[in-house]
Amino acid sequence: MLEIKNLHASIEDKKILKGINLEVNAGEVHAIMGPNGSGKSTLASVIAGKEEFDIKKGTISLDGEDLEELAPEERAHKGIFLSFQYPVEIPGVTVTNFIKTAINESRKARGLEDMPANQMLKLIREKSELLEIDRKFLSRSLNEGFSGGEKKRNEIFQMAMMEPKLAILDETDSGLDIDALRIVANGVNKLKNKDNAIIVITHYQRLLDYIVPDFVHVLHDGKIVKSGTKELALELEEKGYDWIKQEATV
Amino acid sequence: MDLKDKLLSSFLAFENSVDLENPVHDLRSEAIKNFEEKGFPSKKEEAWKYTSLNSLQKVDFSIFPKEESTLEYKDIKKYFLHEIDTYKIVFVDGVYSSYLSETTHDGVDVCLMSSAFTKPMFRQVIDVYFNKVASKDESLTTLNTAFCKEGAYIYIPKNKMPKKPIQILHLATGNEAALMLQPRNLVVVEENAEVQIIERHQSLTENEVFTNSVTEIFAAKDANVDYYKVQNDANTASLVDNTYISQKDNSVVRVHTFSFGGKLIRNNLNFYQNGERIDSTLKGVTILGEKQHVDHHTLVHHAQPNCESHQDYKGIFGEKSTGVFNGKIIVDKIAQKTNAFQQNNNILISDKATINTKPQLEIFADDVKCSHGCTIGQLDEEALFYLRSRGIPKKEATALLMYAFANNVLESVRIPEVKTRINKIIANKLGVRVGFEL
């Protein structure tokens, strides 16, 4: 589904990604781990199309179609979803209005009519229940004054509404207490199926107890230096990242 | 002949059309002397540093329309807030149109200044209130006073409230190549009375119009006034709006100014608090493009203790538009426990747009809470990426952010249809459909 080949990306001439290779197939969950500053969030942003980053070399494709030239919204229309590490607060636009706009714009891009209001309401009800979101919450301004946990739950709620092909969860576990973590992880697991794929970006093993990855990759200094199965995450939890760094330099 | 000379010579002709024995005429005579002495304000004056009236003074404006014009309601319906039932005071080229208006004397007076000036039943109110809060030395205000003859007269007696909101609409037909209008409005809201007013100036052609308007508003003890100014005029229409508000104990006055179009708009909005526990609210949304210019000059004078004022102006400036915000707050020594808040936030969406913003605080009391803040920025790139990553195209995402930016100013609008109308104008102005009713 997603194929990344020899990807190099920079911001203001600072090289951050230095040759990433990654292949993600439908039905798979991949975890990307690594120390601070290794390029994890950059990788997520570059896949989603953030324009501040320059792709110097390499390719990203989704189902065989090159993404590099596409705007963020066009990538979203093709089924890419990024759950933000720091969701932006937008006062004056309610969660409901925001999600309606997002869904109808994506439908428009696919040549579909607006979703009928009753169907939209039903979907919102269904998906907010999945994430144990209070109805009152939906009429609040997007992310404004939300707690860390509420912001992340709201991200996964949007993911549930948009049903992406490929979801990238950027440090979705940060700022979550154990109950919120469980709710968010349950939500993600219920959304997972054989036709979609998930990339989980995280520092810690903790989230991977709930969202079990098929593959684990370790990112260090802009490159994937080690790949393995879920056991690799446990090993990292136990030993830290230093041995990986050493192995990489050797 | 420049405009000042033309106005001065026109005053003599004007005197033939009014009753010189009426005490109001003494005020006119005083006022024209002041204008003759001062003339139009120039950019040398601090208050007019960023707004020039020079080009307007070169236009050969007709001071009095030559012929009476008639309009069909269906042709101008869209300029009315027609979604709800209202009283209407409508002027066409400065002349009252009884055909388009709906006035009343049923418990409240919603009628004309020309009647109020001339009929004995209004004499007392005119004596007590007329020209009492308007400036007697600001040149444009005195120019208006000199030529005062017509406008809206609204009198709400104690404990009364009109059955419906009141619309004041000034239409310019373009029958004159260039027309100057000087409406004069008086709004008196007595103790514990209430009123909601919507005012709009609209030019129907590309012919030049220059309106120099003065409105006096008196809010007695416990009175409640909502005033909405809709400024979305043609690009050849200029407006100087001088509004003076006097408030007594416990009164609440809110003025919302929506500035979306016109060639040059200058809003001089002055609040004088003459009592305790007064609440004054001044809010504005300005969205400009092309070479439009809007200048908001506000004054809140806190003259008694325990009062509040809330100012919140948001501006979005595109293309070569220019904006000015100058917010002056005076807190007298006696006005302890004053809470005065002022906020002015601006977004520039073009390299060629300009905003000048200046808070001006003169605080002589020591136990007060005064805050002010002004910001000038661009759209938040992070927020834009967030929206786009959810499939919302750049243009729509930009509009959504601008809408969100301006939205909190609309929260205090108490007539839902006004809010809807303003939202529609905003959406139209931003040129988008964002999937939900803005």
Automatic annotation (TrEMBL), chain A:
Similarity comment: family membership: Belongs to the ABC transporter superfamily. Ycf16 family.
NCBIfam families from the UniProt entry: sufC
Keyword ATP-binding tagged: yes
Gene (UniProt): sufC
InterPro entries: AAA+_ATPase, ABC_transporter-like_ATP-bd, FeS-cluster_ATPase_SufC, P-loop_NTPase
Organism of provenance: Flagellimonas olearia
Keywords: ATP-binding, Nucleotide-binding
Gene3D superfamilies in alphabetical order: P-loop containing nucleotide triphosphate hydrolases
Superkingdom: Bacteria
Signal peptide residues on this chain, from the entry's feature table: none
PROSITE patterns in UniProt: ABC_TRANSPORTER_2
Chain ranges of the ABC transporter domain: 2-246
Cited SMART domains: AAA (SM00382)
UniProt name for this protein: Fe-S cluster assembly ATPase SufC
GO MF, one annotated term: ATP binding
Automatic annotation (TrEMBL), chain B:
Domain SUF system FeS cluster assembly SufBD core: 175-405
Pfam family of the protein (one): SUFBD_core
Domain SUF system FeS cluster assembly SufBD N-terminal intervals: 22-168
BP GO terms, sorted: iron-sulfur cluster assembly
Family under the similarity heading: Belongs to the iron-sulfur cluster assembly SufBD family.
Name listed for the protein in its UniProt record: Fe-S cluster assembly protein SufD
Protein's organism: Flagellimonas olearia
